[in-house]
């Protein structure tokens, strides 16, 4: 099984589940089991083949699963626990059970072996980040990703909705955001160190607010929380293509057609805060109850703030000593606005380094666990997101057979070896680690097939580590067996032996960016409060 349960004991006996089997128990928990096992076409009833009970002494995601000759018994701490128990039950069935109900093997009974499983996750944040700003992925791909996450007990989908290269969500209050800022006329296709080359093909797209509402409801039914990101105050070319008056200079930008970071930056003055508060209202109104909203704070070029007499005077009026302190103030004001709306702010680690944040702001230390430890020691909750080994846009080997990637190398074994709460941290610091999350930046991920290749099976290792705290010693063996489930699900993962011929695409220039060198540089930058500039 992946992730490996805390306790699994094999029992004698077995039970046959057939399409139309009955699931009984409290409505919400029984419905969770039905959602988790769509291929069985389970029917509700007062008593049946799968009996679900709730135990308030268990944690909300904890469960006990017992199968044998008398049927299937699930005892859960809440809806989430019942859903996870059903996913574990699914992994007891043959690989063919992961195919659609019309596929081979369906319409017959599935034999469930006798087991007793007792399980609960170590971390509550088990996440995947998807950048839909650099390359847009339509709603159908997001819903499919939710299903795959749920099958692996991953439960946070971080959608990077805004960047220099595109704005990806409808705004009824500021319609130029989706009318102008959501598309670009062309996209850079050259690799690092090569002459500039563009595809001259328009690229764009956005989610309507109704799309977001649908995605959030679909995710909630599968115990996945959507975490939207509006990245500010930098990465602002697309916003300023639509509303240049929100910038520090008033000049109009084009939606960026190349990679990297531009000097485009939003103004920190009150009209910008009002604009973003309206965007938050639209987002939260569409998503429903939203416990977390990411506001970025990374790779900010503050030159235009420094050059602006109006912004500098505003800084002085607030009693702030530096422009990084003004950025910290700006992000704190946005976090206050989110708190008023029932959401906690999440930021990248530059925002922590720049100045004092609201104490309840969650920090994502992408530049390494050293700055993550400092954030935890300062009292912030932390979600581990270091480039190594959790940036899945990096190649899995230093081979030209790999499809083009930002750098190398991050392997499945690297992910499996990661420990989100290191043993040498203090107990207090470790208690601040909410979990971990892998990042998929999509400069070189332009389609769903490449997305599959980059995510899987590395995300299987992520699921193992975030559920159990560390990978079990037999993870590699279990992963080999698990690949049959991915095959049945139609996932075009990277084979352990390397890419298939059609997965190679544009050859990768191995060694152009080495992740070990990147991490050394990033770690040194985290000690400088002025290090908000682009770090890579």
Compute the average pLDDT. 95
Low-confidence stretches: none
Distance between the termini: 37 Å
Shape: globular
* Sheet with the most strands: spatial strand order: 17-16-15-14-9-8-19-18
- Please give the largest β-sheet: 8 strands, parallel
How many domains comprise the coordinates?
A: 2
CATH class of the largest domain: Alpha Beta
Question: How many helical elements?
Answer: 19
Q: What amount of the residues lies in strands?
A: 15-25%
What's this model, at a glance?
With 536 residues, the protein is α/β, with parallel strands linked by helices. It is 34% helix and 18% strand. It has two domains: 7-119, 2-Layer Sandwich (Chitobiase, domain 2), CATH 3.30.379; 125-526, Glycosidases (TIM Barrel, Alpha-Beta Barrel).
Secondary-structure map with pairings?
Blueprint: E1 7-17, E2 22-24, H1 27-36, E3 43-44, E4 50-54, E5 63-68, E6 71-76, H2 79-91, E7 110-119, E8 125-131, H3 139-151, E9 156-160, E10 162-163, E11 166-167, H4 176-179, E12 183-184, E13 203-204, H5 209-221, E14 225-232, H6 237-242, H7 270-287, E15 292-296, H8 303-307, H9 309-317, H10 323-340, E16 344-348, H11 349-354, E17 362-364, H12 369-377, E18 382-384, H13 387-390, H14 412-416, H15 427-431, E19 433-440, H16 448-455, H17 458-468, H18 475-489, H19 515-525
Parallel strand pairs: 2-3, 2-4, 4-6, 8-9, 8-19, 9-14, 14-15, 15-16, 16-17, 18-19
Antiparallel strand pairs: 1-7, 5-6, 5-7, 10-11, 12-13
Helix pairs in contact: 1-2, 3-5, 5-7, 7-10
Supply the key terms:
single chain, 536 residues, alpha/beta, Chitobiase, domain 2, TIM Barrel, 2 domains, eight-stranded parallel β-sheet, seven-stranded mixed β-sheet, 19 strands, 34% helix, 18% strand, globular, glycosidase, Hex-like_dom2, HEX_bac_N
């Amino acid at each position: 099984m992946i992730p490996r349960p805390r306790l699994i004991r094999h029992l004698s006996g077995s039970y046959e589940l057939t399409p139309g089997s009955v699931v009984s128990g409290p409505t919400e928990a029984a419905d969770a089991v039905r959602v988790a096992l769509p291929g069985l076409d389970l029917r509700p009833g007062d008593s049946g083949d799968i009996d679900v009970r709730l135990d308030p002494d268990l944690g909300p995601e904890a469960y006990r699963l017992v199968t044998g000759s008398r049927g299937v018994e699930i005892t859960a701490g809440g809806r989430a626990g019942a859903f996870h128990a059903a996913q574990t039950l699914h992994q007891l069935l043959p690989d063919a059970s992961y195919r659609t109900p019309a596929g081979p093997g369906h319409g017959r009974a599935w034999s469930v072996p006798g087991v007793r499983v007792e399980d609960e996750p170590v971390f509550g944040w088990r996440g995947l980040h998807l950048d839909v700003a650099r390359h847009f992925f339509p709603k159908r791909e997001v819903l499919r990703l939710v299903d795959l996450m749920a099958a692996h007990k991953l439960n946070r989908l971080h959608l990077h909705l805004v960047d220099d290269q595109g704005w990806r969500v409808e705004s009824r209050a500021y319609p130029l955001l989706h009318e102008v800022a959501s598309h670009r006329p062309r996209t850079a296709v050259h690799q690092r160190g090569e002459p500039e080359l563009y595809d001259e093909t328009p690229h764009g797209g956005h989610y309507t607010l109704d799309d977001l509402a649908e995605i959030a409801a679909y995710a909630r039914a599968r115990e996945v929380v959507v975490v939207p990101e509006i990245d500010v105050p930098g990465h602002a070319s697309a916003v300023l293509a639509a509303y240049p008056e929100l910038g520090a200079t008033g000049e109009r930008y084009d939606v960026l057609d190349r990679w990297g970071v531009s000097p485009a930056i939003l103004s920190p003055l009150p009209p910008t805060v009002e604009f973003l508060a309206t965007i938050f209202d639209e987002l939260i109104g569409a998503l429903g109850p939203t416990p977390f909203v990411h506001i970025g704070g990374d790779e900010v070029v503050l030159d235009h703030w420094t050059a602006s007499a109006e912004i500098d005077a505003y800084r002085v009026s607030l009693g702030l000593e530096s422009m990084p302190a003004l950025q910290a103030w700006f992000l704190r004001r946005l976090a206050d606005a989110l708190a008023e709306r029932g959401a906690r702010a999440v930021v990248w680690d530059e925002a922590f380094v720049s100045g004092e944040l609201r104490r309840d702001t969650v920090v994502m230390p992408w530049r390494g666990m050293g700055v993550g430890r400092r954030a935890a020691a300062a009292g912030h909750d932390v979600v581990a997101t270091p480039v190594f080994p959790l940036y899945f846009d990096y190649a899995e080997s230093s081979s030209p057979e790999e499809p083009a990637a930002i750098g190398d190398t991050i392997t499945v074994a690297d992910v499996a070896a990661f420990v989100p709460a290191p043993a040498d941290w203090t107990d207090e610091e470790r208690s601040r680690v909410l979990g971990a999350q892998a990042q998929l930046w999509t400069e070189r991920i332009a389609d769903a097939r490449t997305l599959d290749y980059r995510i899987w099976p590395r995300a299987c290792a992520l699921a193992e580590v975030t559920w159990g705290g560390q990978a079990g010693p037999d993870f590699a063996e279990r992963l080999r067996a698990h690949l049959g489930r991915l095959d049945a699900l139609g996932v075009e993962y990277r084979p352990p032996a390397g890419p298939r011929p059609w997965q190679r695409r544009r050859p990768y220039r191995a060694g152009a960016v080495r992740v070990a060198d990147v991490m050394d540089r990033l770690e040194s930058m985290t000690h400088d409060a002025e290090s908000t500039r682009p770090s890579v």
